[in-house]
Amino acid sequence: MRTSASDTPRGGARQWWALAGFAAAVTAAAVIGNLAAVGAADEYRSIEQPAWAPPSWLFGPVWTVLYVTVALAGWLVWRRVGFGPAVLAWAVQLVLNAAWTPLFFGAGQYGLAFAEIVLLWLAIGVTVLLFRRVSTAAAALLLPYWAWVTFAAALNYSIWRLNG
Fold this sequence. Notes:
Elements: H1 12-36, H2 40-46, H3 59-81, H4 85-106, H5 110-134, H6 136-163
Helix pairs in contact: 1-3, 1-4, 3-6, 4-5, 5-6
């Protein structure tokens, strides 16, 4: 006999509350970044940047889309396997994500922020690998995020070198 999603422990109304929880976790990471980034647009314009640096207005829309995909990816994996190593890896990378903006913009520690973003990049990679074992779709949802963090790391490194 086939069971429906609502017959499983992670089905029914509980799955929608969980989605709200994943969205809340991602929103918390974004809020931490936004609080640390007060005045970031002005700071970003005032520091020496490589010629290929994007305009400051681009970051908000990009991160909004990426945060949605990060929340969905975590939720998809949770629906399949619940809380375990894959979701723990997701949580670790989210904490590292939240920590970067205060280091870069809040403290102006470009070198330390670069070291931290390398850890974030590695944590995303581990998360993608763990997610791939559970859900190809969830892993795929993280790939644009990983690509953007790769770009952000290169930009962070360049800014560190130009302003160090």
